[in-house]
Amino acid sequence: MSQSLPAYTRIAAILPCYSAVGDSTTIISADGSTTTLTSRVRAVIHRLARSRAIDLTALRANTRAATERKNLEPLPLAPGLVLVPVKVRQPRVAGDTTTGYVNFHTVTAVCVSKNKPYQATITLSGKTEIPILWTAATVNRQLALARLAASTALTSQPLAANAFHETFPGYAPDLLTLAVKLVDVFNEILTMKQNM
Q1: Would you list the DSSP string of 153-179?
Q2: What's the pTM?
Q3: pLDDT per residue over 119-152, tens digit each?
């Protein structure tokens, strides 16, 4: 049985870590609590996307077009969950993941780090501090790209899909935000039920 993931609105960071079983993932919640999963960061991102019925390849293509990035693009997976890639560690073994993700919506500060080899520190809600190998300027650039990706995520739907919605009887664009929030509430209820 696979380990359950926290609700989208509670995820503050998804970071690679080394554990007794090897390369694993630590999920930091918005309140500062942590959960360690035995799967790698990439698998966790795929699980999050699959649980939202998101085509990760298409999402990355849309985000690349909006941000003009060729790799390490932000991932707007859900309202309140925009994952920003950041380099958090040096690999012990070639091929190990060095990139983690912080939720754009939980970042409260970015500052220069005096703890070498880290060049910056990201502070998240819950007062969690994450040391980053990139400079503060690079992290701030990534956060700016995440803001852009989040703002274009809903508007990057294909024209045919938008046209279908507009011609669909009972279509009301004002209800889209409410419907998305309702889906998130149902997801949180299901997550809470699984954790009982």
Answers
A1: HGGGS-HHHHHHHHHSTT--TTHHHHH
A2: 0.76
A3: 999 999 989 999 999 999 999 999 999 988 888 7
